[in-house]
C-alpha cells in the first residue's frame, strides 16, 4: 500500500489533537494544531455532528496515524489483540507500543516515529546484538536495543538524544546513553500510554 506522503500536520488537524509526527516542530508554536485548531480543507470549520461510526473511524485513524501503521498491518495487530487475554483495546495499544520503531522513538534515538522507522529500516539498530531492520518487530522484557557502533556519530541521532528531556522516558524502558543502549524492563501497560485514546471505539469499529 502506498504510504501517505502529504502534509502531516493536516493529519493532526483532522484528528483534532497533536500526533507528534514532525519531531521538534511539534513542541513549538509553529505546530499546525496550535496555529489552526480546526480540521483542514475548505469546509474544515463548517463540519457539524458526527455519527457513531464517524467517531469510531476517527479514533482508529488517529491511532493508526500516530504509530504510522498501514491499514492492513493495523487490522492484523487488532486481530492479534483480540486473540490475547484481557481487553482487546488495551492489548492493541500495548502491541503497538512494543513495535521496534516505537521503542527507538521512545528511547529518544529519533524525534518522531517516522524518523525512527527509517533508522530501523536502514539497519542502524541491533536487538540483543543482532542487526534488526524490521520496524514492526515486537520487543519483549529483557531485550536490549542498541545503536550500531558505526551509526553513533550520526548528527540527527545524537541531536535527538540531546532533545530527549522534552519527552519523558516511559517506565518500562531504561536508557544507557553512554552505551547507546535501551533495555526493555517490562511489558508496557495501558497507563504508560498517556495520549488521549478511546480504544473501545476502535474495538467497536472492527466488530461491526
Ligand atoms: Fe502534528 Fe507536529 Fe504538525 Fe503539530 S507540528 S500539527 S503535532 S505533526
List keywords for this structure.
Ribosomal Protein S4 Delta 41, Chain A, domain 1, globular, single chain, alpha+beta, binds iron/sulfur cluster, 39% helix, five-stranded antiparallel sheet, 3 domains, 208 residues, Structural Genomics Hypothetical 15.5 Kd Protein In mrcA-pckA Intergenic Region, Chain A
Question: Care to describe what's here?
Answer:
- The protein contains 9 helices and 5 strands, in the order αααααααβββαββα.
- It has a 5-stranded antiparallel beta sheet with strand order 2-1-3-5-4, covered by helices on one side.
- It has helices spanning 8-15, 32-35, 52-67, 71-82, 88-97, 100-106, 113-121, 155-162, 199-206, and strands spanning 125-127, 130-131, 144-147, 173-176, 181-184.
- The two termini are 24 Å apart.
- α3 packs across α9 (199-206), α5 crosses α9 (199-206) and α6 (100-106) crosses α7.
- It folds into 3 domains: 1-48, Ribosomal protein S4/S9, N-terminal domain (Ribosomal Protein S4 Delta 41, Chain A, domain 1, Orthogonal Bundle); 52-98 and 195-208, Ribosomal protein S4/S9, N-terminal domain (Ribosomal Protein S4 Delta 41, Chain A, domain 1, Orthogonal Bundle); 100-187, RNA-binding S4 domain (Structural Genomics Hypothetical 15.5 Kd Protein In mrcA-pckA Intergenic Region, Chain A, Roll), CATH 3.10.290.
- The relative contact order is 0.14.
- The structure holds iron/sulfur cluster (SF4).
- The site of iron/sulfur cluster (SF4) has 13 residues, from α1 and α2.
Amino acid at each position: 500500500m502506498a504510504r501517505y506522503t502529504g502534509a502531516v500536520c493536516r493529519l493532526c488537524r483532522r484528528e483534532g489533537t497533536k500526533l507528534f509526527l514532525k519531531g521538534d516542530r511539534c513542541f513549538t508554536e509553529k505546530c499546525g494544531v496550535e496555529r489552526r485548531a480546526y480540521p483542514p480543507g475548505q469546509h474544515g470549520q463548517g463540519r457539524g455532528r458526527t455519527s457513531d461510526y464517524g467517531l469510531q473511524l476517527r479514533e482508529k485513524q488517529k491511532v493508526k496515524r500516530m504509530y504510522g501503521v498501514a491499514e492492513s498491518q493495523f487490522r492484523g495487530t487488532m486481530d492479534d489483540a483480540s486473540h490475547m487475554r484481557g481487553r482487546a483495546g488495551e492489548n492493541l495499544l500495548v502491541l503497538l507500543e512494543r513495535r521496534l520503531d516505537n521503542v527507538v522513538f521512545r528511547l529518544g534515538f529519533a524525534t518522531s516515529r517516522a524518523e525512527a522507522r527509517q533508522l530501523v529500516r536502514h539497519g542502524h539498530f541491533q536487538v540483543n546484538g543482532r542487526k534488526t531492520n524490521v520496524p514492526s518487530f515486537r520487543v519483549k522484557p529483557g531485550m536490549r536495543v542498541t545503536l550500531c557502533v558505526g551509526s553513533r556519530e550520526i548528527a540527527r541521532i545524537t541531536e535527538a538524544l540531546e532533545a530527549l528531556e522534552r519527552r519523558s522516558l516511559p517506565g518500562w524502558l531504561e536508557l544507557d546513553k553512554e552505551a547507546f543502549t535501551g533495555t526493555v524492563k517490562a511489558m508496557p501497560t495501558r497507563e504508560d500510554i498517556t495520549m488521549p485514546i478511546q480504544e473501545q471505539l476502535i474495538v467497536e469499529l472492527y466488530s461491526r
